[in-house]
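Input (SET domain-containing protein):
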Amino acid sequence: MAANQPDEITPDTITLGQPNVRTVAGVLIAWNQPVKPEFAHLARNESIQMGHIFTNPIPAEDRLGAPFYSRHNYPGIPRRKMTANEVAAHKKNYEWKAQTTYTNIYNQLLCTYVGWNSTAALVQLDARFRRENQEVLGTARQRDAYLRSIQRDPEATDEMKQATRMWLSMGLDLLNTPHHLFWLYEDLSYYHTKIHRVHDLPPLIYLCLRRNLVMPPRFKYTIFNVVEERAMDVILSAQSNKSVDELQKSYKRKLTNAIDTACESPNTCQCNKLWHMLYAPQPGSTESDAKYMTQNGEGRLDMTDFDISDLRVVIECSDTCGCSSVCPRRCTQRGQTKMLLVRYENEFIDFALRAAEPIRQGEFIVEYNGLVTQADTGIRRDESYDVALNLICPQLVINSSAIGNLSRFMAHGCQPNAALIETHSRVKDEDPLVPRVSVYAMKDIAAGEKVTISYYQEEQLKSKDGYPCKCRPGCTNTLPRYY
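Output:
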């Protein structure tokens, strides 16, 4: 099969001996259909994956056949693992890969291994283990720091504080129950982190701090957008997809670079030109004015007087700007730098995204990834996961109900601390301009705090026949009902 011919689209993985190429987009091709002639250049692009379905395959080194068979079937998570009896038949082998560490009831370091179930966890007293597993231990330290903050939190319930002991003081009952939902949460944390680690993104953690755990979220994890075939037709024909040279040939007004830029190469940066040619309000236009959000030298946005009802866009540099990958105007391209976690909150909110470390106002938090599809497809979907693309491709939305990343867990807040911003971004000008949406902090966010966005406009929060909002204690707003 030729490169990039339709098969499966998968999260980026590391193949020994092969260069590590970051996928910029996946393109879903209809079953039993050849690649369209107009997609030929996409098939030649090493950063584009094309296939009939998006799937999270189980990594090859984790496909271990064994008597233990998990009753849970989640994308990309192994269902077969080695039991303690099988492991005992092998001599101690440092080639086994550490998955996660805990502290047991005797204050000892306890390790679970990839491909082993919980009954085969080992106490590790060896200094060599610590030297060779710094990344695993570092992730566990970050997780435990958050859990200890729960123990000190006066607003945390006794049930939540007691639940932290599953990690901080692990007992034999949990270790001897490999079917416990706790281990499924741990597998989700580990295998989704593996997808992050390919591109030096921080680890992620899923938590449920309850006596009786609820089922963890079930979806396919991606760190790039997956585009339906009809949506890619829209993208390729959109004005925003044209190169800078193409746009300049048809643009009649005089261009100006009067706007300051934090680009490493300010004299050759093309971002301000793209703003004027594509998104700036035109004389006599009756459309809503778009706001141009530009990063400073630290990559942060000025969120002063930020209004969530405004249309807004961030434009990132490409190869035509002449800057490097560390340019302040390439935040979304570089990806998430702050560690985040997903925690089950309650029956009303379900799961929510929280910061595991402080985030400053104006900082990039995460990209909103999912399925790029037409807004009106006639096919039923959960539209509560839709993010509209009002400026870059108004006919399209990004939906993260079945395919997405951590950002799909951002809860509603009537006083949000984060915002979604459409992002015009591609590394190379020849790449398709797949619409992207970035999440930036509207205010400082403390470690442990929920990352919230507003799902509604202000006037929608005063509905007389709505239901009470529970985004924070004492909120008096009502949320609209959709029948």
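The first strand starts at residue 7 and ends at 9.
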